[in-house]
Amino acid sequence: MIIPHALYRGLESTADQRQHAYRELFRMHLEPDELHAVREALNQELV
Predict the structure, then answer these.
(1) Contact in structure between 20 and 12 (CB atoms under 8 Å)
(2) Strands (E), the chain
(3) Deepest in the core among 3, 5, 11, 47, taking most CB within 10 A?
(4) Could you give the CA distance from residue 16 to residue 22 in angstroms, rounded to a whole number?
(5) What is the distance between the alpha carbons of residues 3 and 42, in angstroms, rounded to a whole number?
(6) Is residue 26 part of a domain?
(7) 3-state DSSP call for residue 21?
(8) Is-contact 9 18, C-beta < 8 A?
(9) Beta-carbon count within 10 A of 3 CB
(10) Pick from 17, 18, 24, 21: which is nearest to 4 by CA?
(11) Is residue 2 part of a domain?
């Protein structure tokens, strides 16, 4: 059985509000140099 993580459930009180709050977490865009650094770390299997 798959259930939502406790941190996700703690975002808001209703499912619609939680979904909106979760989407808002990722609304910020990374600067190109930050995105490049993340991709380089992933390509090198670094944490």
Answers:
(1) yes
(2) none
(3) 11
(4) 10
(5) 28
(6) yes
(7) helix
(8) yes
(9) 7
(10) 18
(11) no
SS3 call for 23: helix
11 and 22 in contact (C-beta within 8 Å)?
yes
- Residue identified by tokens 């993340």 is 38
Instruction: Kindly list the distances between the CA atom of residue 25 and the CA atoms of 18, 28, 38, in Å, as whole numbers in the listed order.
Output: 11, 7, 17
The two structure tokens encoding residue 45: 């299997």
Hey, what are 2's tokens? 């798959």
Give me the number of domains the chain comprises: 1
17 in a structural domain: yes
* Tokens coding 43: 């390509």
For the question of whether the overall pTM of this predicted structure is more than 0.70, the answer is no
